[in-house]
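> example.struct
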């Protein structure tokens, strides 16, 4: 590589995007399974699976009603009117997921989902797997089936049909670059009419995730922790530093401690009165609550310390294993480059 140019002069010469083929509709680069950068057109099927499939949400599908209502998402003008901050997020698993801080994540509509030829080439399934009986389809045909990919793509497209209903929604989407800037309002109207005529939002034609609109992130995290017994691996970790972890866990402990202090103060006032000072049940309750007030915060802080220790150990082990894996790949790449 050191003896040749990384690119030539043609890279900066304006030309027709049609010369790029499918590359004109895809991101500039993509991340492979081993966390390397590559061209999306190199393994376009793997790229589409990562960009559109919502397996993470489908795994907790039976419990999604706990995190959101089974109805299309509310339009963008409603999101803005209710003071929700729109966060542009390319992760499909975070599309239409909102945080307690009133921030909703939205994945921009990819250009390739607005190209009929791309649908024909990569998203429409025409194999025997979709036209034959399931028992007559072999394993190889099942692996090459595009049915689920098609349902995810159509579901994602239908979500924008609900998000961008009014012209005001369209201008909000353009402001946040959620829609390609080449699309006009008239084009969007025509597209929606065709989608509705073709029954694109029919529940039978879309992935079950898109039967739900906005999903609450804190509840998705609890679903993963409780129903999948993974207390250290939530749906999406909301903190990036240990300081944020302590803040999240100490906030309820602090609120509980303040409440305990108020109760203890009220009990002291009660014990100063003749009626309660001579009451045996109140004396027992005061004794028990005093012991709890002493031990409760200590147990809470100890619990937070255990959680921090487990999280720290888990992160260190994960980082070390990932480093070993990646550097092994780098060494293999260096060996290949040195071969004659």
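> example.seq
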């Amino acid at each position: 590589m050191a003896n040749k140019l990384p690119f030539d002069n043609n890279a900066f010469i304006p030309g027709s995007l049609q010369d790029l083929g499918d590359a004109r509709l895809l991101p500039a680069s993509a991340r492979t399974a081993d966390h390397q950068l590559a061209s999306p057109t190199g393994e376009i099927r793997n790229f589409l699976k990562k960009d559109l499939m919502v397996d993470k949400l489908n795994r907790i599908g039976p419990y999604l009603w706990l995190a959101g209502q089974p109805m299309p998402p509310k339009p963008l003008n409603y999101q803005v009117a209710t003071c929700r901050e729109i966060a542009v997020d390319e992760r499909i698993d975070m599309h239409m997921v909102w945080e307690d801080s009133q921030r909703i994540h939205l994945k921009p509509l990819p250009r390739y989902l607005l190209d009929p030829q791309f649908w024909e080439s990569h998203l429409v399934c025409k194999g025997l797997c979709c036209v034959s009986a399931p028992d007559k389809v072999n394993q190889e045909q099942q692996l090459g089936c595009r049915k689920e990919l098609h349902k995810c793509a159509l579901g994602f497209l239908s979500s924008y049909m609900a998000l961008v209903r009014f012209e005001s929604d369209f201008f909000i989407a353009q402001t946040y670059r959620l829609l390609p800037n080449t699309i006009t309002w008239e084009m969007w109207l025509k597209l929606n009419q065709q989608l509705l005529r073709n029954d694109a939002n029919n529940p039978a034609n879309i992935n079950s995730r898109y039967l739900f609109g906005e999903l609450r992130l804190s509840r998705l995290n609890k679903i993963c922790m409780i129903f999948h017994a993974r207390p250290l691996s939530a749906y999406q970790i909301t903190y990036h530093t240990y300081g944020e972890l302590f803040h999240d866990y100490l906030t309820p402990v602090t609120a509980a401690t303040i409440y305990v202090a108020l109760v203890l103060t009220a009990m002291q006032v009660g014990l100063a009165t003749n009626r309660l000072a001579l009451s045996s049940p109140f004396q027992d309750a005061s004794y028990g609550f005093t012991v709890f007030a002493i031990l409760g915060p200590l147990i809470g802080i100890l619990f937070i310390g255990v959680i921090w220790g487990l999280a720290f150990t888990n992160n260190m082990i994960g980082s070390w294993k990932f480093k070993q894996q990646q550097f092994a790949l780098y060494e293999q790449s260096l060996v290949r480059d040195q071969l004659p």
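> remarks
Residues 49-227 form one domain.
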